[in-house]
Amino acid sequence: MVKMNYLLNTNFKVVKGENINIETFLHSKRVAAYTKRIAQYMNYCSKQTNTLILAALSHDIGKSRIPSNILNKKGKLTNFEFEIIKQHAKYGADILIENKQCKDFCDIIKFHHENYDGSGYYGLCGEQIPVYSRIIRIADVFDALTTNRPYRKAYSIASALEIMECEKYMYDPKLFEIFINLVNRNIKEMLISKNIS
What we know:
This protein has ten helices and no strands. By secondary structure, it is mainly α. It is globular, with a radius of gyration of 16 Å.
Protein backbone atom coordinates (compact mmCIF):
# COMPACT_ATOMS: atom_id res chain seq x y z
CA MET A 1 0.00 0.00 0.00
CA VAL A 2 1.25 3.47 -0.88
CA LYS A 3 1.69 5.87 2.01
CA MET A 4 -0.15 8.93 0.71
CA ASN A 5 1.44 11.20 3.32
CA TYR A 6 5.02 10.72 2.12
CA LEU A 7 4.95 14.02 0.21
CA LEU A 8 4.07 15.82 3.44
CA ASN A 9 6.46 13.88 5.67
CA THR A 10 8.98 16.21 7.31
CA ASN A 11 11.43 13.30 7.54
CA PHE A 12 11.48 12.90 3.74
CA LYS A 13 15.15 12.37 2.88
CA VAL A 14 16.45 14.96 0.47
CA VAL A 15 20.17 15.41 0.04
CA LYS A 16 21.47 18.99 0.21
CA GLY A 17 21.26 20.58 -3.22
CA GLU A 18 18.43 18.32 -4.44
CA ASN A 19 15.33 20.17 -5.54
CA ILE A 20 12.58 20.15 -8.12
CA ASN A 21 12.15 23.29 -10.21
CA ILE A 22 8.74 24.88 -10.70
CA GLU A 23 8.47 23.69 -14.32
CA THR A 24 8.95 20.06 -13.27
CA PHE A 25 6.41 20.49 -10.47
CA LEU A 26 3.80 22.01 -12.80
CA HIS A 27 4.49 19.34 -15.43
CA SER A 28 3.92 16.59 -12.84
CA LYS A 29 0.71 18.28 -11.72
CA ARG A 30 -0.63 18.36 -15.30
CA VAL A 31 0.42 14.74 -15.91
CA ALA A 32 -1.49 13.80 -12.73
CA ALA A 33 -4.59 15.61 -14.04
CA TYR A 34 -4.41 13.72 -17.36
CA THR A 35 -3.90 10.37 -15.64
CA LYS A 36 -6.86 11.07 -13.36
CA ARG A 37 -9.09 11.48 -16.41
CA ILE A 38 -7.87 8.18 -17.83
CA ALA A 39 -8.47 6.47 -14.48
CA GLN A 40 -12.01 7.86 -14.33
CA TYR A 41 -12.69 6.74 -17.91
CA MET A 42 -11.47 3.24 -16.97
CA ASN A 43 -13.70 3.20 -13.86
CA TYR A 44 -10.80 2.77 -11.47
CA CYS A 45 -11.78 2.68 -7.82
CA SER A 46 -10.66 5.59 -5.61
CA LYS A 47 -7.66 3.64 -4.26
CA GLN A 48 -6.40 2.84 -7.78
CA THR A 49 -7.02 6.41 -8.92
CA ASN A 50 -5.21 7.87 -5.92
CA THR A 51 -2.21 5.57 -6.44
CA LEU A 52 -2.03 6.55 -10.10
CA ILE A 53 -2.29 10.28 -9.27
CA LEU A 54 0.39 10.01 -6.61
CA ALA A 55 2.66 8.13 -9.02
CA ALA A 56 2.10 10.81 -11.68
CA LEU A 57 2.93 13.55 -9.17
CA SER A 58 6.11 11.64 -8.25
CA HIS A 59 7.19 10.42 -11.69
CA ASP A 60 9.96 13.03 -12.19
CA ILE A 61 11.14 13.28 -8.58
CA GLY A 62 14.44 11.73 -9.68
CA LYS A 63 15.22 14.90 -11.64
CA SER A 64 16.20 16.37 -8.27
CA ARG A 65 19.42 14.36 -8.67
CA ILE A 66 20.18 15.55 -12.22
CA PRO A 67 22.51 18.56 -12.56
CA SER A 68 20.42 21.64 -13.43
CA ASN A 69 22.83 22.69 -16.21
CA ILE A 70 21.92 19.45 -18.04
CA LEU A 71 18.25 19.45 -17.09
CA ASN A 72 17.72 23.02 -18.31
CA LYS A 73 20.10 22.98 -21.28
CA LYS A 74 18.75 25.07 -24.15
CA GLY A 75 20.62 23.23 -26.91
CA LYS A 76 20.74 19.60 -28.00
CA LEU A 77 21.94 17.16 -25.36
CA THR A 78 25.10 15.19 -26.03
CA ASN A 79 24.83 11.38 -25.82
CA PHE A 80 26.59 11.54 -22.44
CA GLU A 81 24.12 14.17 -21.14
CA PHE A 82 21.15 12.15 -22.38
CA GLU A 83 22.44 9.09 -20.51
CA ILE A 84 22.56 11.23 -17.35
CA ILE A 85 18.99 12.50 -17.93
CA LYS A 86 17.77 8.92 -18.37
CA GLN A 87 18.93 8.15 -14.83
CA HIS A 88 16.09 10.25 -13.38
CA ALA A 89 13.70 7.29 -13.63
CA LYS A 90 16.04 5.12 -11.52
CA TYR A 91 16.81 7.99 -9.14
CA GLY A 92 13.09 8.56 -8.62
CA ALA A 93 12.58 4.92 -7.66
CA ASP A 94 15.65 5.12 -5.40
CA ILE A 95 14.28 8.19 -3.59
CA LEU A 96 10.96 6.44 -2.98
CA ILE A 97 12.70 3.25 -1.80
CA GLU A 98 14.78 5.38 0.60
CA ASN A 99 11.48 6.71 1.92
CA LYS A 100 10.08 3.21 2.45
CA GLN A 101 7.61 3.07 -0.43
CA CYS A 102 6.60 -0.38 -1.68
CA LYS A 103 8.43 -1.94 -4.63
CA ASP A 104 5.36 -1.97 -6.89
CA PHE A 105 4.91 1.78 -6.45
CA CYS A 106 8.64 2.43 -6.99
CA ASP A 107 8.51 0.34 -10.19
CA ILE A 108 5.81 2.63 -11.61
CA ILE A 109 8.29 5.50 -11.35
CA LYS A 110 11.28 3.46 -12.51
CA PHE A 111 9.50 2.28 -15.68
CA HIS A 112 7.60 5.42 -16.72
CA HIS A 113 9.86 5.82 -19.79
CA GLU A 114 9.26 2.31 -21.09
CA ASN A 115 7.76 2.02 -24.55
CA TYR A 116 5.19 -0.60 -25.48
CA ASP A 117 7.44 -1.87 -28.30
CA GLY A 118 10.38 -2.40 -25.92
CA SER A 119 12.40 0.64 -27.02
CA GLY A 120 12.38 2.42 -23.65
CA TYR A 121 15.10 2.91 -21.05
CA TYR A 122 15.00 -0.65 -19.65
CA GLY A 123 13.71 -2.59 -22.66
CA LEU A 124 10.48 -3.81 -21.05
CA CYS A 125 7.63 -4.22 -23.52
CA GLY A 126 3.87 -4.67 -23.60
CA GLU A 127 2.33 -6.13 -20.45
CA GLN A 128 5.76 -6.34 -18.75
CA ILE A 129 5.43 -2.60 -18.12
CA PRO A 130 3.26 -1.73 -15.09
CA VAL A 131 -0.08 -0.41 -16.35
CA TYR A 132 0.26 2.81 -14.34
CA SER A 133 3.65 3.41 -15.98
CA ARG A 134 2.00 2.95 -19.39
CA ILE A 135 -0.67 5.52 -18.51
CA ILE A 136 1.90 8.01 -17.19
CA ARG A 137 4.02 7.50 -20.34
CA ILE A 138 1.20 8.76 -22.56
CA ALA A 139 0.31 11.73 -20.34
CA ASP A 140 3.99 12.61 -19.84
CA VAL A 141 4.74 12.75 -23.57
CA PHE A 142 1.59 14.73 -24.33
CA ASP A 143 2.35 17.33 -21.68
CA ALA A 144 6.02 17.57 -22.72
CA LEU A 145 4.98 18.21 -26.33
CA THR A 146 2.34 20.83 -25.47
CA THR A 147 4.55 22.80 -23.05
CA ASN A 148 7.43 25.19 -23.74
CA ARG A 149 10.78 23.50 -23.14
CA PRO A 150 14.22 25.13 -22.74
CA TYR A 151 15.09 23.98 -26.29
CA ARG A 152 11.77 24.57 -28.15
CA LYS A 153 8.33 26.16 -28.09
CA ALA A 154 5.21 24.16 -27.24
CA TYR A 155 3.39 22.30 -30.00
CA SER A 156 -0.34 22.85 -30.45
CA ILE A 157 -2.58 20.07 -29.16
CA ALA A 158 -3.35 19.01 -32.74
CA SER A 159 0.35 18.88 -33.65
CA ALA A 160 1.19 16.98 -30.46
CA LEU A 161 -1.46 14.36 -31.22
CA GLU A 162 -0.15 14.07 -34.77
CA ILE A 163 3.39 13.45 -33.47
CA MET A 164 2.13 10.89 -30.97
CA GLU A 165 0.08 9.17 -33.66
CA CYS A 166 3.25 8.78 -35.75
CA GLU A 167 4.95 7.20 -32.72
CA LYS A 168 1.98 5.19 -31.47
CA TYR A 169 4.08 1.99 -31.34
CA MET A 170 5.48 3.50 -28.11
CA TYR A 171 2.14 3.39 -26.30
CA ASP A 172 -0.28 0.74 -25.09
CA PRO A 173 -2.79 0.79 -27.99
CA LYS A 174 -5.91 0.54 -25.80
CA LEU A 175 -4.74 3.26 -23.41
CA PHE A 176 -3.64 5.47 -26.30
CA GLU A 177 -7.06 5.19 -27.92
CA ILE A 178 -8.72 6.12 -24.62
CA PHE A 179 -6.40 9.12 -24.27
CA ILE A 180 -7.08 10.35 -27.83
CA ASN A 181 -10.83 10.10 -27.22
CA LEU A 182 -10.51 12.03 -23.94
CA VAL A 183 -8.43 14.78 -25.55
CA ASN A 184 -10.84 15.13 -28.45
CA ARG A 185 -13.78 15.35 -26.02
CA ASN A 186 -12.13 17.80 -23.63
CA ILE A 187 -9.92 19.91 -25.88
CA LYS A 188 -11.36 23.30 -24.80
CA GLU A 189 -11.05 22.45 -21.10
CA MET A 190 -7.47 21.27 -21.65
CA LEU A 191 -6.53 24.51 -23.38
CA ILE A 192 -7.90 26.52 -20.46
CA SER A 193 -6.06 24.42 -17.84
CA LYS A 194 -2.81 24.75 -19.82
CA ASN A 195 -3.09 28.53 -19.69
CA ILE A 196 -3.82 28.55 -15.95
CA SER A 197 -0.88 26.37 -14.81
